[in-house]
Q: What sequence folds into this?
């Protein structure tokens, strides 16, 4: 009997397809190291041939171009239905997708249609005598959970970039096959895409960023954050998602997976808990200073300098010290 | 329009928490706050705003232990019309079991809303699984909802990655998960809270329903491995400020101190 494969799922129209393909292939190889299985990819879309060829050359694994009739966008309801039919015939042990809005929704749908486990946001893979344990962030990144699937089929979404740079390229020429499918919208029709607003050039080019998180508590305390930024040459003010959601800072100032990705030489995180969605946007920073009153905040695991203090007491002292001479 | 909002009571991530002895969940390790998961509170706010615009009823449901009734009381205080408590001995980490328990309640509703994920397990799975189980269309990470005048459809703006959005049309009945963006959960009014105390909460025993086999389980919880040194500054708050300024000067981020 042949071993059930590991199947990587990509959308041909995904602008980040190449990076997603590498991330998913590296995750698939990590699984196959512990539990050997053939790895294949499916590139699905209205016209997936070119993207499938590219993926096969890039990854060196067999790829199926799955052409979906009358598809306007991977967000259309037909996408999941055709994909489920295709995957049911392949009977994979693992289905891997990128952990995106689309990937998470499809994961739930495919898991129901394939009677599979649904494990999202996977950051690492480990093996033991009983099989594979997947690691994912819980409680805002304060803990990481090891999750074991008890179903024979597993649908997994892999955190963007979690396996980045870990793909070993092979020179094996890979086949591209072709398949097609058609399905009704299932009550979900894609209408249009709205492009992201212009990224704030100030943030991506800033030498230093002072960022405010949920822990600032009230909008007036942003003045302290601004005052600190004013002391540091070339510093800009940014915020985490909850701060921008409340309108305390504009969306263009949001750092994280749903906002900007930044890499300043200095990043001062004020009252930021350290959720993985935020870390994804600032992990490339040089020196990271974290200020938070919760000594167990996840941000302290990802900071070079840790200051356990309440912002309302510490920031005024810090701003004052910036202007003082040294002994 | 009859709207069902799925809510979960969580141990707030900013609370003092520790891994349980069995390593399969997180338990209080000091001062803890139990509250409605933030995204679910946003979903309830979205439902209340829809009711204000087009009329109808808002029902809330939770699957959880006895103390989760507090979350339902708060939801009633915020303005929900009815509450259903599917009582479980503990928090259930398997989204299939949660979705299967909610599915019969969802059957009588036009629109099911839930948070894009819970703040504790962060799976984002119950909404899409519930939609697929009940054969309804699904939209996720919604930042805007626009019902058709005749109530037969819903236009949803979904948040994708890096600020991109997509607009989709769903036929009703549908399932939508809510991103935190534009919805700020209202505070319950005092009169709302008083009224909520008198309102009945319907309780359901999930063992009366067929419970699906679990498909996954948690085996171990630990703080994440550090990715950086995390040197902690010590002393009084003032001492720490002086140390930090010294360090930032050494690295050239602050001008040298005045002589």
A:
């Amino acid at each position: 009997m042949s071993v059930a494969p590991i199947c990587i799922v990509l959308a041909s129209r995904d602008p980040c397809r190449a990076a997603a393909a590498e991330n998913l292939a590296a995750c698939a190889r990590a699984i196959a190291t512990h539990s050997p299985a053939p790895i294949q990819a499916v590139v699905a879309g209205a016209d997936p041939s070119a993207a499938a060829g590219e993926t096969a050359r890039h990854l060196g694994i067999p790829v199926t171009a799955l052409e979906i009739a009358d598809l306007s966008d991977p967000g259309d309801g037909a996408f999941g239905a055709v994909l489920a039919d295709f995957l049911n015939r392949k009977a994979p042990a693992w289905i891997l997708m990128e952990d995106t809005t689309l990937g998470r929704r499809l994961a739930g749908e495919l898991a129901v249609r394939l009677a599979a486990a649904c494990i999202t946001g996977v950051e690492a893979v480990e093996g033991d005598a009983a099989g594979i344990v997947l690691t994912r962030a819980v409680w805002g990144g304060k803990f990481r959970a090891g999750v074991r699937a008890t179903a024979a089929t597993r649908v997994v979404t892999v955190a963007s970039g979690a396996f980045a740079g870990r793909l070993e390229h092979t020179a094996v020429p890979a086949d591209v096959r072709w398949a097609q499918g058609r399905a009704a919208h299932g009550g979900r029709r894609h209408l249009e895409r709205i492009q992201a607003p212009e990224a704030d050039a100030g943030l991506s080019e800033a030498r230093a960023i002072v960022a405010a998180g949920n822990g600032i508590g009230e909008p007036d305390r942003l003045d302290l954050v601004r005052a600190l930024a004013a002391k540091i040459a070339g510093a800009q003010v940014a915020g985490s998602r909850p701060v921008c959601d409340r309108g305390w800072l504009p969306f263009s100032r949001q750092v994280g997976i749903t906002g900007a990705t930044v890499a300043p030489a200095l990043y001062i995180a004020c009252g930021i808990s350290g959720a993985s969605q935020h870390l994804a946007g600032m992990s490339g920073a040089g020196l990271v200073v974290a200020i938070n009153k919760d000594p167990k905040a996840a941000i302290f695991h990802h900071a070079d300098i840790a200051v356990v203090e309440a912002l309302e007491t510490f920031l005024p002292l810090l701003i004052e010290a910036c202007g003082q001479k040294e002994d | 329009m009859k709207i069902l909002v799925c809510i979960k009571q969580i141990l707030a991530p900013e609370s003092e928490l520790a891994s349980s002895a069995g390593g399969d969940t997180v338990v209080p390790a000091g001062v803890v706050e139990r509250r409605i998961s933030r995204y679910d509170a946003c979903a309830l706010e979205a439902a209340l705003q829809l009711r204000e615009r087009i009329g109808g009823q808002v029902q809330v449901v939770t699957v959880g232990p006895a103390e989760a009734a507090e979350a339902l009381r708060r939801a009633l205080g915020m303005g929900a019309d009815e509450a259903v408590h599917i009582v479980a001995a503990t928090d259930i980490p398997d989204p299939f079991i949660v979705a299967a328990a909610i599915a019969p309640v969802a059957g009588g509703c036009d629109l099911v809303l839930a948070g894009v994920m819970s703040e504790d397990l962060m799976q984002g799975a119950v909404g899409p699984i519930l939609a697929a189980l009940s054969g309804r269309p699904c939209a996720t990470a919604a930042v805007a909802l626009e019902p058709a005048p005749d109530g037969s459809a819903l236009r949803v703006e979904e948040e994708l990655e890096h600020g991109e959005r997509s607009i989709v049309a769903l036929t009703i009945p549908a399932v939508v998960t809510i991103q935190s963006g534009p919805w700020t959960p209202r505070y319950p009014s005092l009169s709302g809270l008083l009224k909520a105390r008198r309102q009945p909460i319907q309780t359901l025993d999930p063992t009366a329903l067929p419970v699906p086999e679990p498909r996954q389980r948690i085996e171990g919880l630990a703080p994440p491995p550090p990715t950086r040194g995390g040197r902690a500054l010590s002393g009084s708050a003032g001492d720490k400020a002086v140390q930090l300024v010294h360090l930032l000067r050494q690295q050239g981020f602050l001008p040298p101190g005045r002589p």
